[in-house]
Amino acid sequence: MMACAIVSTISSASAKQPSLASTPPMGWNSWNHFADKVSDSVIRAQADAMVSSGMRDAGYIYINIDDTWQGVRDGQGVIHPNAKFPDMKALAAYVHGKGLKLGIYSSPGAKTCAGFEGSYGHEEQDAKTYADWGVDYLKYDLCSFHDEVMAKAKTKQQRHRLMIDAYARMYRALRDTGRPIVYSLCQYGVDAVWNWGASVGGNLWRTTADISDNYDSMAMNGFGEAAIARYAGPGHWNDPDMLEIGNGGMSAAEYQTHMSLWALLAAPLLAGNDLATMTAQTIALLANREVIAIDQDSAGNQGTRVWMQGTNEIWAKKLADGSRAVGFFNRSGEMPDANLEIKLSDLKLTATVRARNVWTGSDLGKLHGKIQIAVPPHGVVLLKVTPSAAD
Ligand code: GAL
């Protein structure tokens, strides 16, 4: 009986063609910068800035409301937003009117992580409400479901089963609305979510604890993804958490590392800063078209580490056109620059290549046999390396 249930979950989910999230979702999420200060006016201002900054046209489409929007349920059990969001349907229409999409947040538990109303026992009803409002994306965060429901089960297997069933239930509820809604699993990577996230309809799943706006947190999440690259692909992505670029806690070199690493990882790119007040430098980091093209490459490969020595690492990602995106990382915060070197054969490339530095836009010309690069502390050099026709 149990085996049948598992199979039916898997087949219904994998039958879904990746028309949704065929490349890693791009957009913005309220949590990292605004936390409980998110409101209707904040969301409208972010939507406006997404367009005026050029970020929408660079591919950032989703405007996602995270935790703390929820009010109470009415007599019929229908969830209503709290006073910060007077009219969700009107807000969705506003966001859609800008050529953007709207995301929302809930939990399989009775309470969200910030203690607001979750979807427990109201999954189908909530999915219908979201669809009726015009929601296009749901982040579903484990939160109290762990302590209040799973913790009561006797065995690890039963706890795991409860979690899988809860995620699958909301997937079916979303699917049954008939509205395409990107489904983002958030349970911090426990129980190897990459093994089963796609089978419960997840388009992306958090693989890590929450990111913070500092190098060590970002590096722990990003560089920690090396072993799970093969689980990512069109329609289902590993998610090392939202971006912190522009929030002020890291240097420009560190934010460049953050963006480069996320692009190599084919990670969802959800900006987490205040788009309405960001600097030109932040826009340049978030909206570099060549870096975004690496993230959004249609082959959907997640890059991985190909070389490591001490605090120096080289990561590579095979792109649809046969070239490689190659990131040279210096994880030391101390001067001087690190000198990194890799043989082209270690990148499975021909002996002669052309290389382009995607952040500076400079062409390195033809290279033979190996690539040598100097990388500043906590910095990165990100290259697009293309086999040369005249090898
Ligand atoms: C955490 C989650 C964060 C944010 C927060 C809201 O569990 O990982 O990304 O959504 O809850 O309360």
Walkthrough of the structure:
This protein is α/β, with parallel strands linked by helices and 391 residues long. It is 31% helix and 24% strand. It is built from 13 helices and 18 strands. It has helices at 2-14, 31-34, 40-52, 55-58, 88-97, 123-133, 144-149, 156-176, 193-196, 215-223, 252-264, 280-286, 289-295; strands at residues 26-29, 62-64, 70-73, 79-81, 101-106, 137-141, 182-186, 204-206, 237-239, 269-271, 304-309, 312-318, 324-330, 338-343, 352-357, 362-368, 370-375, 380-387. The chain has an 8-stranded parallel beta sheet with strand order 9-8-7-6-5-2-1-10. Helix 10 links the parallel strand 8 and strand 9 (237-239). Helix 11 packs parallel to helix 13. The longest helix is centred in the middle third of the chain and has 21 residues, at 156-176. It is globular, with a radius of gyration of 21 Å. Mean pLDDT is 95; it is low at 1-17. The structure holds beta-D-galactopyranose. Residues 31, 66-67, 112-114, 141, 143, 186, 210 line the site of beta-D-galactopyranose.
Q: Whole-number average pLDDT?
A: 95
Bound molecules: beta-D-galactopyranose
Regions with little confidence, pLDDT below 50 for 5+ residues: 1-17
Distance between the termini: 59 Å
Largest sheet composition: 8 strands, parallel
